[in-house]
Amino acid sequence: MDLIIGGAYQGKRAYTEEQYKLSEEEVFTCTEKTEPDFSYKALDHLELFVLKCVREGRDAAAFFQKNETLWQDKVLIGEELFSGVVPMEKENRMWREACGALYVYLAKEASTVTRIFLGIPERLKG
Amino acid sequence: MKIYISGGCKNGKSTAAEDLAIRLSGDHKRYYVATMIPYDDEDHKRVEKHVNNRAGKGFETIECGRGIEKIMGEDSEKATYLIDSVTALLLNEMFADDYNGEADPEAAGRCKTGLKAIGDQAENVVYVSDYIYSDAVRYDEFTENYRQMLAEVDCFMAAECDVVLEYVSGIAVFHKGKGLL
């Protein structure tokens, strides 16, 4: 699995599509309303799946741990959202924490970790 | 040489940008381009602080909140421009008269065109922006639109520039062009 992270609007998806020669339709877009579809080669906006889990009282990192076979050969894309003030709303605090826990787990499992900053990739691992 | 500087607020970007502009300009003209249009007391105090910090560093100040390409003049080819900041410029371009109106959808495009034109013509340009892309808060549409547009300008200009730097506690992290400075 390759993990792509970076702040909002930094070009993570464009980088993934170019790097792995994927069309827009070949990348699944997670939302806070849908379950991720792991039949796709790449999944974008992991943070929104995490938000869905928070709202449903589920543990996103545990979900990924339990379903390892689903994402072993995937490209996973997640937004970094860790550099603001501690959010006022409880849901946002839980969201931030759950995202952090998930990314730390995924980064440990990943073959490569790439961070995108202003459209420029930096390899952090692998 | 074109240098793009980003990073969190209050991490030493402006001071570093001044030092870089001084180094690059040598004996030639150096301009400090202030893009923030001060609205209240707090703004005026920030401007005063920046002006004092720059005193004696040999910058000529140009104030330009909109239509950034008009700062160019006859001596542009040899001049060094420090543009501080892209963040304020975009905000001014988005809201021509007041912040209550609709955001101008062409604002990011105008910033890109203008900022690139200066980079194409001038000897050196140091651009300063702000990294506001990592927060676990769902912003209102106004703010989210602004973040998205700023990122569009940032990514475009980062591709245009020779060097891209992130400042962390006053320390430069190279994302592009290490070895060029």
Question: Could you give a short description of this structure?
Answer:
The complex is a heterodimer of chains A (126) and B (181). Chain A has 126 residues and is an alpha/beta fold. Chain A has helices spanning 12-19, 46-56, 60-66, 68-71, 90-109, and strands spanning 2-6, 27-29, 42-44, 75-79, 112-117, 120-125.
Descriptive account of the structure:
- The complex is a heterodimer of chains A (126) and B (181).
- Chain A is of the alpha/beta class.
- Chain A has one domain (2-125): P-loop containing nucleotide triphosphate hydrolases (Rossmann fold, 3-Layer(aba) Sandwich), CATH 3.40.50.
- Chain A has helices at 12-19, 46-56, 60-66, 68-71, 90-109; strands at 2-6, 27-29, 42-44, 75-79, 112-117, 120-125.
- Chain A has a six-stranded mixed β-sheet, sandwiched between helices.
- In chain A, helix 2 (46-56) crosses helix 5 (90-109) and helix 3 (60-66) runs parallel beside helix 5 (90-109).
- By secondary structure, chain B is of the alpha/beta class.
- In chain B, strand 2, helix 2 (41-54) and strand 3 form a beta-alpha-beta unit.
- Chain B is globular, with a radius of gyration of 16 Å.
- The mean pLDDT of chain B is 92.
- Chains A and B meet through helix 5 of A and helix 5 of B.
Give keywords.
heterodimer; A: 126 residues; alpha/beta; Rossmann fold; six-stranded mixed sheet; 5 helices; globular; B: 181 residues
Total number of beta strands of chain A: 6
CATH topology of chain A: Rossmann fold
Specify the biggest β-sheet of chain B: 7 strands, mixed
Categorize the overall geometry of chain A: globular
Number of strands of chain B: 7
CATH architecture call of chain A: 3-Layer(aba) Sandwich
Helix content of chain A: 25-40%
Global structural class of chain A: alpha/beta
Instruction: Determine the strand fraction of chain B and express it as a percent band.
Output: 15-25%
Task: Average the pLDDT over all residues of chain A and give the rounded result.
Answer: 95
Strand order in space, largest sheet of chain B: 3-2-4-5-1-6-7
Q: How far apart are the first and last residues' alpha carbons of chain B, in Å?
A: 9 Å
